[in-house]
User: What shape does this take?
Amino acid sequence: MQRGVYDLEDLMMMPTVPRRSVLFNLEPIGIGTSFVESLTSYIARLSCAHCLTVSKLIEIVIKPYFSSSYLKNVHIDSFYKPSICLNGNSSVTFDFVETLETLTGNKEIRYLTLLPFSGIWRRDIVKNYRTWCPQCLEEWKNEKSILYEPLIWSIKDITTCPRHKVDLESNCPSCLKKMNVIHRNMRIGYCNYCNFWLGCNSQKSKYEQTEWEEWINYNYAKLLHEMYYANIQPLKRKISVVIAEIINKTMSGNITDFSNLVGIPRKKIYKWKYGETIPALSLLKLCYFVDITISDVLLKNFVPEIKLKQERIQIVNDLRKINTITNIESENIEESLINILALDIPISLAEAARRLGKPYSTIYASNKEICKQISKRYLDHRNNLKNQRMINAVAQVKQIIENLQKEGIKPSEHFIRQKLNKSVHAIFLGKVIKIALTELNQINSKNP
Assistant: This one.
């Protein structure tokens, strides 16, 4: 049988096999939507897909490909500090995106960050700790959907879930710790430290959203949705043009009158108008005052129509009065601290300061005794939770040991771990088993 003979022309037309990627070409979730996945979430899912911890993925696979000599040489234990702004637009973000796009072959990873707005936003626009919506996580788990953390959750100005209108959580409900945005043992939907499930379907909103808060959520959601489809590069100069147009249309170009109207210092507005500094949250306020969206400013190649809304200026000014330390007297702070001390679930003094929008030192100076009581009550609460978790874990392990003994199996740590769910962290399992065995031996010695 004669073998087929190919001409040189036929060989030249044969398809070329694409180069194999180092990592799986994992598809990002929500590209082109307001709920697009964050880069830190993508890294956590990528490590899970390769059956590696996040630390091993970064240390062994990703680090050797970094273009930055600093990131190549930094120790893994010191690596997480420069990575706190990984979802933003820092140089570290750029190195990560560039490297991951090379390793996975996916050229859309930059849209999992705020890199498209480099030079427009400050690097601290994103949070340096994880936040999540418990209802979203619980909903996705029940629907057997892929768990992930949307980029919009990591933006500092976003404090409520745009979908469920509930507060975003930042502390683990079990160990009460805040979590870094990227961690060596990070798993989507679980605590970095105690591995506790972070989803919940019974949380209710603490308060009704104001028009201003809804505006912030809507603007960032629209911005993240449209940045993928934008056919122009956001320019710093465009912001200056729009701000100058707002001043011209509202106050005939008079910066002083405009400053008095919106309650923003004249010098700051002057620097914005002439491109010397970049407004962050203040740009959102200006857009709110004149009823335009931030995506119209950054992603459109025309200046939007300006319509001043006087009532909105009053809304923001009222909020500023509520949250400004100079407008709240010491006795009002003390009254707020007394209310915090009476909360059903204790909070830390740092959390109290955050909720009141005051510096820690100011809170402490207002009434040292109440502050000490808040701190002591919170510490006792944490210790009680820890003791209760230990009691529950011991009871669970005792039951497992008794069941194993009935089956004629020696209750080793290996068999106990197989029967045990993940509610007991591996670090404490040895201690829990030791306590459970001691208690069982004491009971058996009393009842031979």
